[in-house]
Amino acid sequence: FVAPQIYITGNYGGSFEIGATVTLPKTFFADVLDPTAACYLTVTKPNGEIATDVTGKELKNVAPEEIYGLALAESGTYGVSYTATDAGGNVATRSYSLKAEDRVAPELSFGGEWKDGVLQETYVFPQIVAKDNLGGAVRIRIMIADPNGTVTILKDGVRAVKFAVAGKHVITVAAIDESGNVTSVRIEVNVRG
């Protein structure tokens, strides 16, 4: 026996920015031997819960011939699945994913000026402030290149150094959010001997 056929119209699936609203395309189904075949659409959020459309309608076993707007409010993969059955017990399924991604780099600023340093004296960095657009954790990485080309990557949380070489040092401060988006700033600090 032949299972029902499911036809998804237009473009579907793919990656989108978190917060985007996606229109789920109309989907049709047919069974040449059973005019009473049925098809249902279910959408799950990244945490596995049933999603709702923009009007608040729960998208669990709903008619796929309708058009639904889905707000991708959470980071991760949304599952869109269709199940069609006929009177003979034949089942057809189709599915695709919608990936909601954070594509916005964190903001990075400093609570003070980067001043010149003095050889072998403790140099304290100005306050480093990083904010994520989704309110998630932001990791700060600091790298220092001295005039001889030696690069030092500071351990997490280190915000002061003693320069061992006089001359121009290039300090790179990078802010990395949980999605891997990066913002970096290069600062030149002159160290007097």
Can you give me a brief rundown of this structure?
It contains no helices and 17 strands. The protein has 193 residues and is mainly beta.
List keywords for this structure.
about 190 residues, five-stranded mixed sheet, four-stranded mixed sheet
Could you walk me through the main structural features you see in this protein, from its secondary elements to its overall organization?
The protein has 193 residues and is an all-beta fold. It is built from no helices and 17 strands. A 5-stranded mixed sheet has the order 10-17-16-13-14, with no helix packed on it. Strands 2-8-7-5 form a 4-stranded mixed sheet, with no helix packed on it. It is rod-shaped and about 90 Å long.
Q: In whole angstroms, how far apart are the ends? A: 87 Å
| Strand/helix succession | EEEEEEEEEEEEEEEEE
Number of DSSP strands? 17
Q: So what's the overall shape?
A: rod-shaped
Helix content: under 10%
Which range does the strand content fall in? over 45%
Helix count equals 0
Mean pLDDT: 95
Could you give the order of strands across the largest sheet?
Answer: 10-17-16-13-14
Radius of gyration: 27 Å
